[in-house]
Design goal:
The chain is mainly alpha-helical and about 325 residues long. Helices cover about 65% and strands about 0% of the residues. The protein binds benzoyl coenzyme A. It comes from Streptomyces johnsoniae.
Length: about 325
């Protein structure tokens, strides 16, 4: 069929897409969408999924050394939740026509990114608390607006993920609260963890707005609802009173309430460090990817067994 013949329905479909976005309604997998919208979503959702499964590693590091049965059970449940988040998100990417094997291949060969935050080490037990409070706190701040993302399956996955992230954030806060009221050594350990995780948490929101190539288009498509800097500011405003309640200090001498703006001013993020981590030079990049590739290879027999089972029992055959 010549392009002249197909141009008309194509234009009508594009108008329909624009109308749906303008009306704040959802785009669903069956709907027509521009190729670039599809590609942007696959990129963001896949990188989000990769972050969830790589994000299991720093915390899993402490499962065998959790200080009590209660703490161990909570931590195991949290790490399992993250595996679940990865699965919902890979599922959402599949509704756009991506294959999970291909997305994982891109992660394993370094062609896809995952969140910079997971390239930092978990040196003490207090890091589990700092990750819950700050990393999951930053994740919620970023992800609650994604529940209103224009792509239906991603938005719906985010609703459930955000509920679970809220529990994760509270457990981290409660853990730090306990340490902050413990012995001098426990307090010092909590403060040291906050000192190390604060700035990398601010980097989770992405580059500053004037250096964020994706934001304008993603906002126009209502994939993103706020800019990176807006969400970073919201996070700082939430954390300052929480740090005070914990009795811990945030490692930023420039933190000051700005009456005029109605927000906390904060110091300069080290964007050189951010860029270095993104290009593979963070403290744990190599270790995280090696571990991920190893887990994938060691899980090959499970994938083969699942495929063999599916071939023997076609969907619905035993119902
Ligand atoms: N780390 O133009 P920009 C979790 C990339 S999981 C790495 O601002 P965009 C959790 C960005 O992808 C947390 N890469 O892009 C899990 C883009 O890459 P391309 C993950 C980053 O997409 C377990 C390039 O830089 N959350 O919370 O408009 C346990 C240019 O940036 C980072 C999500 O993925 C970074 N920090 O905005 C506990 C949420 N920042 O173009 C917790 C969903 C930027 O080369 N994603 N990049 O492919 C988003 O909301 C957006 O993608 C971002 C970036 C705000 C992250």
């Amino acid at each position: 069929m010549g392009t002249a013949v197909s141009a008309e329905p194509e234009r009508a479909r594009a108008e329909d897409f624009e109308r749906t976005i303008a009306a704040d309604e959802r785009i669903e997998p069956r709907d027509w969408m521009p190729d670039a919208y599809r590609a942007t979503l696959i990129r963001q959702i896949a990188q989000h999924a990769h972050s969830e499964i790589i994000g299991m590693q720093p915390e899993a590091n402490w499962i065998t050394r959790a200080p009590s049965l209660r703490r161990k059970a909570i931590l195991i449940a949290k790490v399992q939740d993250e595996a679940g988040h990865g699965l919902y998100l890979y599922g959402a990417a599949e509704t756009l026509g991506a294959s999970r094997a291909e997305l994982l291949g891109k992660l394993h060969t370094g062609r896809h990114k995952y969140s910079s935050i997971f390239n930092y080490p978990t040196l003490t037990w207090a890091d589990v608390g700092a990750i819950g409070w700050l990393v999951d706190g930053a994740a919620i701040t970023n992800q609650v607006p994604l529940c209103r993302c224009s792509y239906g399956p991603y938005a719906r996955a985010m609703v459930r993920i955000c509920k679970e992230e809220s529990f994760h954030q509270r457990q981290g806060y409660e853990l730090l609260h306990t340490l902050a009221r413990g012995t001098g050594a426990q307090r010092a350990m909590a403060q040291d963890a906050v000192d190390r995780w604060w700035w990398p948490s601010l980097m989770m929101f992405g580059p500053p707005d004037d250096a964020s190539p994706r934001t304008a288009q993603s906002m126009a498509w209502k994939i993103k609802r706020h800019t990176n800097d807006e969400l970073r500011q919201r996070f700082v405003d939430i954390c300052v009173p929480q740090a005070e309640a914990l009795g811990l200090t945030l490692p930023d001498r420039d933190l000051r309430w700005n009456e005029e703006r109605g927000h906390w001013d904060f110091g300069a993020v080290d964007w050189d460090e951010f860029r270095a981590v993104l290009s593979g030079g963070g403290p744990c990049n190599e270790q995280r990817l090696d571990q991920r590739r190893r887990a994938h290879e060691e899980g090959a027999w499970v994938r083969e067994a699942a495929a063999a089972y599916a071939a023997k029992h076609p969907a619905g055959a035993d119902r």
